[in-house]
Amino acid sequence: MQTILAVDDELSVRESYRMILGGRYRMVLAESAGAAAKILQERHVDLVLLDLMMPGMSGIEFLACLEKQGVAIPVVVVTALGTVESAVRVMKHGARDYVMKPFDVDQLTLLVDRILREQQEKQELATFREMDRTGLESIIGGAPALLDALAKARQAMQVDSTVLILGETGTGKDVLARAIHYGGRRKEKPFVPVSCCAIPTTLVESELFGHVRGAFTGATDSRVGKMQVADGGSLFLDEIGEMPLDAQAKLLRVLQDGCFYPVGGTKQIEVDVRFICASNRDFTKAIQHGAFREDLFYRINVLPITMPALRNRREDIPRLTAHFVAKHGQRVNSEVREFSQRAMVRLLAYHWPGNVRELENTVERILVCHNQERTIQPEHLDSIIGPAKVQPLEVWGDLEGLPLEEATNRIEAHLIRKALERSNNVQSQAAEMLGTTRRILKYKMDQLGITPPGEPETLAS
């Protein structure tokens, strides 16, 4: 959760900030600029809401102090001192924006949301530029379905064609999108992410294409959209299936012609943008229900890549778990070093509806809740992923004492046989039940020695 420091000598104003923003952000309140300066020395803050006229150090002096110390925190000045001179003065000292008292709640909320979103994207961009440029090394695993996705991603790095990454929530679509950008020829240009489901429907077009002053109520200034920010680089449209139809029509034109008009504008803008899209939606159903344009789908579905669900790459769970223990252990001051084999079997058997993201959050929670343990046992998982509904012995045979690879194979073989049984041995239907492709299912069946009726038996490798 991002942190906002609200600085105002009036208690009622500070409490108003808490009521308006406290549900979505961590609020820290200070009654003076001096108290705010001490807070900044002790903790991380993502945004400052600052009054100008306060006893002791004024808001202008506080801004000058931040500027002198090189502290790069976005500051929004909220004041009743509404003159052009004061606005120019605070902007010269590095304030990001200026809001008049009494402020409009919706206007302030939208401004804060936008600045913090941009700040987070800027931080993420800096982080990923420090990574290996291909970024694929950060995607852990060796399951066939994952390797297939990574092979397609390497192909996508060589061209500028539009990519559509499909997969359930939590499978790592955003990580793969960044890897494709930083492994391609546009790697030195911006990678601009836009979450289509996180923007209010009425503001999607403004967010993407920008707007001119006066285009709609509240548009007091012109704004550059993310499309223009990404010029020369890549625009990542996450959850594009949630985009409103009006915005879809405008996006289609950009994909066709490379140009657009800002909301309320009359001047056409041309851009050179590589589009990377992602979605967890079934586009066939969305098109049938009129929720997504068929012509737009064909435009974005040039290079489709499917990120597999974690339940379809269970052999990667031990490696991913070890990675997350190493990643979070020291940060949360945990003594945990490993999961016992019986605990790992529990992780392998769990269905992981939230995929890799859920596994990472689960491991971190275990590290915190059982931070004095060096080895995690099955009973430590009961309060986190729930007690086992059945004992492994009842379903997969006695797994205790087996190497993890063999235990994983037994679990996967059981799930595949159950899917084949429910689908009357129609492999395409069984693959759909398991959330994978028929080709990958056949590969796993050959690997595990599973032979449907009517076919010659094979030996497991």
What are its keywords?
Rossmann fold; disordered C terminus; 5-stranded parallel beta sheet; alpha/beta; single chain; 14 strands; 12% strand; 20 helices; 4 domains; Helicase, Ruva Protein, domain 3; 461 residues; 46% helix; globular
Explain how this protein is built.
By secondary structure, the chain is α/β, with parallel strands linked by helices. The protein folds into four domains: 117 residues, 3-Layer(aba) Sandwich (Rossmann fold); 166 residues, 3-Layer(aba) Sandwich (Rossmann fold); 60 residues, Helicase, Ruva Protein, domain 3; 71 residues, Arc Repressor Mutant, subunit A. It is built from 20 helices and 14 strands. A five-stranded parallel sheet has the order 2-1-3-4-5, with helices on both faces. A five-stranded parallel sheet has the order 7-8-11-6-12. A two-stranded antiparallel ribbon has the order 9-10. Strand 4, helix 4 and strand 5 form a beta-alpha-beta unit. Helix 10 packs across helix 12. The longest helix is centred in the N-terminal third of the chain and has 26 residues. The C terminus is likely disordered.
Mind telling me the CATH superfamily name of the largest domain? P-loop containing nucleotide triphosphate hydrolases
| Average residue pLDDT | 84
Q: How do the strands of the widest beta sheet line up side by side?
A: 2-1-3-4-5
Largest sheet: 5 strands, parallel
Weakly predicted, low-confidence segments: 127-134, 389-397, 456-461
Bin the helical content: 40-55%
* Strand residue percentage: 5-15%
Q: What is the name of the CATH class of the largest domain? A: Alpha Beta
